Amino acid sequence: MKKLKIAIFDLTDCEGCELELINLREKLAKVAEQTDIANWRFASHNHDLGPFDITFIEGSPITEGDIEAVKQARAASRLVVALGSCADLGGLQASLGAKAWTQGLKEVYGEKYQTKSKPPKPLSYYIDVDLHLPGCPVNQNELANFLSSLIMTKRPEEARFPVCLECKAKENSCLFLAGKPCLGPITKGGCQAACPSRGLQCWGCFGALRGGNHHAFKSNLEKKFGQEKTKSLLKNFFSNQEEFKSLYPREE
Amino acid sequence: MSLVLHHQDLSKLITELSEKWPVYGPKKERNEHEVRLELLTSAKNLSLNNSSSIVPPKKFLFPAKEVLILFEKNKLKKPAQTELILLGLNRKDAEGLFCLDKLMTTPLLDDHYAEKREKVHLIVIDSLAPSNNLNCDLYLQRVDQEHYLVFPFGGFGGKIAKSKLFSHDGDVGTISTRHLPDNVIYHPRLDEIVENSRDHPVWDRLAETCFNCGICSYVCPLCYCYETEDNFEITSNIEKDCKGCRNRAWDSCMLPDFNKVTFHNFRPKMKDRIYNWYYHKFVRMPREYGFPGCNGCGRCITACPAKINYREVLKELIKDEQK
Amino acid sequence: MSRSNTLPFQMKVTKTVGLSPTVKSLKLGFNDPKLATAFSFEPGQFIFLSIPGYGDSVLTITSAVADLPQIEVAVRSVGNNTKAIHRLKIGETVFVRGPFGNHFDLKKMAGKEVIIIAGGIGLAPLRSLIKTIEKEPQNVGELKILAGAKEPEDFIFKSDLKTWSDFAQVYLTVDQADKNWTGYIGRVTKLIKEAKINQKAIAVLCGPPVMFLPLIKELEGLGLKDDNIYLMLERRMKCGIGKCQHCTCGDRYVCLDGPTFSWLELKDNWEAFL
């Protein structure tokens, strides 16, 4: 069997998802053994220019150079994977929206500052993305299953359940019922309820669950926390998703 | 003369049993209201006050995720199951397990479940007398502050009842506690009422409040729908050993993709999924198995983040039917 | 000892045939000679075919009982498991559970006109019935096969369709014809008039969900009784034994009560045609 040729690129982000890849340790070694990791700035001397079977892109493109790079990567790859929430959803940096982003730059760097960056967007804003692996950071188990699926010519399956499933599986008592604005019920699972298991509310980093009852959840949140806080909570990770747009149709 | 266990010996019994088998039971640790079924070595933190565990005892037979089949190259095998004792379930939870046993083994047998069930021994502790709807090995009826009346069932129950901790010398009175019949879930015409309620406005209302998170299924002792997924072990080599497993994991009929196939979603509307949840529990299951898919444990009510109370829903349907 | 409902048994691929651009037929033989003699099924029943690591797919057996100890299935490549099945070579091992589900009522069909109506890959689950009738065509009154496909190349069992005209009336229609097409053009519903169906006939339908209601309307219009019209339903399935709940359809389980239902049974079912 021919080895899969893999490239891993990173853009604007914290590199935490790549770190999770490294944290796979012996599992990553097995992946490297069964594939050809041909380009990975973060952890390899290989700088092959493609073509690739699978290209993982971490982070969100923000400069013209980034955009050009992802377009080139797309053209050179059979499958493109959005690795982590920055690539998949735009990440926290996308939650501001274009207006607030420009405003923020002025406030921090002054009126005269000429930025090269554009408001952050998910990868899919610029190129077609074949596979999605969200998370801030990605979950190691999901990552391992994702990689093993690719090795065996299998399309990795996305979680079809909310965070609550894995949260109840861990027998956590409900943070939402305890009065915290936990986004677990409408957030895509796969994180193994990492935050709620440590007493922290879910911030929605895996993105909105497709088909979830976001309208019901939003009005419930609004009753408890008011419109403004609700919106800012939902905006953190969902701002570029269809689900968010249907909740706030007039949003830029 | 009846077989008796003194309350102060319960802890010794647990210790004695835990030398031979892993013993699990309801334990409160982090706080008084959070009960989980965990490993016991004594009666320390054991919670016997009828408060229910966050996740029902089904987690030992039908856990959130479990291995159904192990494979290596072209060989398949079933995973080995460990023998364990489940101690301190109240009668309601034990009856729930009895129903789950029926659901998983009839009319067709889920042999994976049956093999697990065979290895799980049940010691029920409740102030109520044992009922017929039990599949337990030992029943300890708390008759007063000091004593339990002991009812062993079957070979395993007989074996553990031989412990010196049990005595025949007790002459204890029995508290008569009556179990009040539940007039909602055992309403004689509930199946018809729910069946005919498809046009009732309550379903539209629920579709506007329910988050579709599926928590009501995860914590239900009688919800058993599942999903399977095949995983290939990343540490094996696909060409050499190709090791992996087929997992079975909780699912919920409330979830948006529950009935989705590649080209079609057969139950795309939330309202229909919510109706189906009630229909299964209060129409299909009573007709198929003779009992509703609910034993009134109330876990779904306590756990629902949208604060939906199925009893209120059923009461509304019953009330409006009489109009 | 009875077979496990959860642990599959081994079978070997003995033949593969490409049926259409997306559909492949597989012939499977038993690895265990004891099982080869013990295994039986009825036309209309289904199995789960699995390649460990890829998943489990529900497939209706497409061969006749008389073809045992080999069975055939037709697989459309759509998901991980079916794609992996398409990559299988002769001699490779697959894993099977089953048979599950109900079956066609052959006794009821005795002496009657039988109408098989299939859309697309819907012909696959009906092939076992046709092949069974083929062995003893005199058992039924008359067999009429009405099949539709998007384009001529999308028909599955093309060579079968040719041989079946020896003992059955075969009517074929396509949505889009090419220059070599000599059959009908349009929906399967259009074929009903052509086939001159007897009102005492028994009809069996299988195809995409949108196909059913218009066809039933036509058949009812011809005077066919509700319990003489049969439909095969498709649902998501994980267990085949009435546990996983994915295939429930109103008050029925497709895996236990189906996959074949009479129109009489489904008429009031609020989920059959969603």
Tally of structural domains of chain B? 2
The most extensive interface, with participating residues per chain, is: A-B, 43 and 42 residues
- What is the string of helix and strand elements of chain C? EEHEEEHEHEHEHEEHEHEEEEH
Quick one: how many beta strands of chain C? 15
Number of domains of chain C: 2
Shape of chain B: globular
Uncertain stretches of chain B: none
According to DSSP, the number of beta strands of chain B is 14
Residues in helices of chain C, as a percent range: 10-25%
The arrangement of helices and strands of chain B along the chain is EHEEEEEHHEEEHEHHHEEEEHHH
The CATH class name of the largest domain in chain C reads Alpha Beta
Report on the biggest sheet of chain C.
Answer: 7 strands, mixed
Structural class of chain B comes to alpha+beta
- State which percent range the strand residues of chain B make up: 15-25%
Q: In a few lines, what is going on in this structure?
A:
The complex is a heterotrimer of chains A (252), B (323) and C (274). Chain B has 323 residues and is an alpha+beta fold.
